[in-house]
Design a protein that fits this description.
32% helix, alpha/beta, two-stranded parallel ribbon, 191 residues, 4-stranded mixed sheet
Length: 191
């Protein structure tokens, strides 16, 4: 469960790269900085540096609203690493903001400020926070075609667009967040 935020799932390896994970584990600092109460099973881990699994050892990988925060090259390398650690028949599910949906909503919005709302929504920018929390800013956006193509470029042959909670992952109802449903693109790739 890569980029899990506060939504770890029991029995999975739950990774996030937020520096507040470590800070939240020190009660005094958590109180002063008001960091979120991270679940104990969420580990701070930067997946851009590799994955801590043997080749062909993982059944399922879930990435929700994290893949688009890496550069294109980092995303492609990560997808290749995920494929490498997946067992034959294993599934990687990638959930990202749906650029095509955002564009359709923008084009259908009669508001004179629709373009400003659209640009704010897709905001591709970096700030000082990137030094503290690498990978926390949106770096790229995907529509179905571009995400499917990237996963195929990573070596996945079976890639298909899916939908909310329609998945080969048995625990999908526990892991997929309702709050992201309306804004997300769901793609599954099988090794």
């Amino acid at each position: 469960n890569i980029g899990c935020g506060l939504s770890g799932i029991g029995g999975w390896h739950n990774f996030d790269n937020s520096p507040s994970i470590l800070l939240s584990r020190i009660p005094l600092i958590r109180g002063i900085l008001r960091t979120p109460a991270w679940p104990k099973d969420v580990q701070r881990y930067d997946v851009r540096k590799g994955l801590p699994f043997l080749d062909n050892s993982v059944k399922f990988i879930y990435l929700s609203h994290s893949f688009h925060q890496f550069t294109r090259d980092e995303s492609l390398v990560l997808a290749r690493r995920c494929r490498q650690v997946l067992q034959p028949g294993g599934v990687m599910r990638v959930v990202v903001p749906d650029l095509e949906r955002m564009a359709r909503e923008y084009l259908g919005d009669p508001d004179t400020l629709a373009s400003e709302k659209f640009l704010k929504r897709v905001s591709l920018h970096h700030s000082w926070r990137d030094f503290l929390h690498p990978g926390s800013s949106v770096t790229q956006m995907f529509d179905g075609r571009s995400l499917v193509q990237m996963l195929r470029s990573a070596g996945f042959e079976q890639v298909e667009i899916s939908s909310y909670r329609v998945s080969a992952i048995p625990e999908i109802n526990q892991i997929e967040l309702e709050v992201r449903r309306r804004e997300s693109l769901y793609v599954e790739a099988r090794k």
